[in-house]
Amino acid sequence: MSRMNIRISGLGGQGAVTAAHLLAMAANKDGKFSISNPFFGAEKRMAPAESYARIGSERIYDRGELVYPDVIMIFHPQVITMQKSYTAPFYDGIKENGLVIINTTDDLLSDEDHKRLKDLNVAVLNHDATKLALEIGKTELSTNMAMIGACAGITKIVTLKALDGAIKDRFGKKYVASGGTATLDEAIKKKYAKKEMLLKANMDTITKSYEIATEWAEKQDLNLVTV
After folding, report:
1. How much is the pLDDT for 25?
2. Which CATH number belongs to the domain containing residue 174 in this structure?
3. Distance of alpha carbon 86 from alpha carbon 84, whole angstroms
4. Is residue 227 one of the residues assigned to a domain?
5. What stretches of 9-77 show up as alpha helix (H) in DSSP?
6. What b/e string do you get for 93-107 counting C-beta neighbours within 10 Å, with b at 16 or more?
7. What is the enclosing helix (H) or strand (E) of 131?
8. Structure confidence by residue, pLDDT tens digits, 146-171
9. Residue 60 structural domain
10. Is the Cβ–Cβ distance between 70 and 225 less than 8 Å?
11. Residue 21's closest CA among 152, 148, 179?
């Protein structure tokens, strides 16, 4: 069985849980098997939050903490600079030939971090997802959409068509979320006068990020797992 394990580390209110769920939903639409789940303590803004998406060619049964990811997405610099993470260092457990996507324009890694990741042949993309979210989505709350787009653009684990369908299911229909995730969904919806505007802004953000990440990936010597 081929499988890609994706670990998302961020802070409360950034939509890390939603991102994992959308990736899993999109994978299902592409005919793959998937499962997503959150891992966090107190559901409050700026508290550490992790979520996981497991996508494979066969049915997946395991849940819980994802210890050995193929891909790691870092939604906020403080996950690294202030160690606001349940995993330390943030890349602990990453597999050989893996991928790290960090929402930043700066190099946040120490010399030791660079060496350890290089030894594992792990590619690192510093990607200004928040800037894309503000420019295209018109709100910082779309940062998770930009990160999803970058992940899909590099790994091709899900298609843009499937992501479009997943977004319509999540925000365009009656979807029942819980706790802080439901609150975040409502906050995003209130940013737009019409639901159609929300769907378009999210998909435009994903698409632009996908294109940027695809261009970056074409210049790298990547050996990522495929599903």
Report:
1. 97
2. 3.40.920.10
3. 7
4. no
5. 16-29
6. ebbeebbbbbbbeee
7. helix 129-132
8. 999 999 999 999 999 999 999 999 88
9. 3-218
10. yes
11. 148
